[in-house]
Automatic annotation (TrEMBL):
Residue intervals of the Pirin N-terminal domain: 18-123
Protein name: Pirin N-terminal domain-containing protein
UniProt source species: Pisolithus tinctorius Marx 270
Spans traversing the lipid bilayer: none
Protein family per UniProt: Belongs to the pirin family.
InterPro entries attached to this UniProt entry: Pirin, Pirin_N_dom, RmlC-like_jellyroll, RmlC_Cupin_sf
Lineage of the organism: Eukaryota, Fungi, Dikarya, Basidiomycota, Agaricomycotina
One Pfam family of this chain: Pirin
Length: 275
């Protein structure tokens, strides 16, 4: 994009795949289920971002996965998880549940209690060879105050020095993929700068950003919260404004990303670093 050292390609919420099944209201950033668009099949290791709302007393019954790294980020309500490894738990706002499917697992994800559960299910491609390892399961919790006006790393490669391989612990959940996920809650008027992970001399790094649709399911237009993104050194008119549900593909050359909340309410943001 001219005038912006970071290449930004918006992924507008109104262009995402979406469906209202009654019990499930969902948006698909990438091709998934009955939604297929070859322009939006994956990006680096990132394969799926589904923003799901599941009605009380319903959910995804027991089903199987192999090879992928699958993690859920809970925005509201309570998510009940059960799987073939014997894990059973209820996850609330701020919880991050991660499963390395490996050679194969079965799991169910359902709304627990009287309220709808709003969560993002994200899939990443495992590193070559790592998709055939024994399945693994991890949970982490990131309270709102921890993410307030700062980016907190909530998922990181399992070979990173910052991760613990304990089932429950502090810090990011480990995955067998070259992907980092950061989360933040940004107050109106606040700007954050994210220093992307360096790939090497002259080698650009990919990224992706998503503004969570916290004001409710809306398939016709984005919600009210908004952020403006671009390089800190860029002119304001070359930056890109995203509203709830919008995302953007990023290519970093040599600059960091500035994210500014230009809306009226708190902006809940997910930011990915990709190989």
């Amino acid at each position: 994009m001219s005038g912006n050292p970071i290449q930004i390609i918006p992924r507008w919420s109104t262009d995402r795949g979406h469906a209202d099944h009654g019990w499930l209201k969902t948006f698909h950033t990438f091709s998934f289920a009955n939604y297929h668009d070859p322009r939006h099949a994956s990006y680096g290791a990132l394969r799926v971002i589904n923003e799901d709302r599941v009605a009380p007393g319903t959910g995804f019954g027991m089903h199987s996965h192999q090879h992928f790294e699958i993690f859920s980020y809970v925005v509201g309500g309570q998510l009940e998880h059960q799987d073939s490894m014997g894990n059973t738990e209820v996850l609330s706002r701020g919880a991050l549940q991660s499963t390395s499917a490996g050679t194969g697992i079965s799991h169910s994800e359902k709304a627990h209690g009287p309220e709808e559960v709003h969560f993002l299910q994200i899939w990443a491609l495992a590193r070559p060879g790592d998709g055939n390892k024994k399945p693994a399961y991890f949970t982490r919790n990131f309270p709102d105050e921890e993410k307030h006006n700062r980016f907190v790393t909530v998922v990181a490669p399992d070979n990173s020095s910052s991760v613990s391989l304990s089932r429950e612990d502090k810090g990011p959940a480990p995955i067998r993929s070259e992907l980092w996920m950061h989360a933040s809650l940004i107050d109106p008027g606040v700007s954050l700068v994210h220093g992307h992970v360096e790939k090497g001399q002259g080698q650009p790094r990919k990224g992706y950003i998503h503004l969570i649709q916290t004001s409710g399911y809306n398939s016709g237009k984005p919600g009210g919260n908004a952020i403006r993104i671009g390089s800190k050194s860029s002119a304001e008119d070359s930056k890109v404004e995203l509203r709830e549900g919008d995302g953007a593909y990023l290519v970093y050359e040599s600059h960091d990303l500035e994210v500014t909340n230009v809306g009226q309410g708190k902006a809940e943001v997910l930011l990915f670093d990709l190989d």
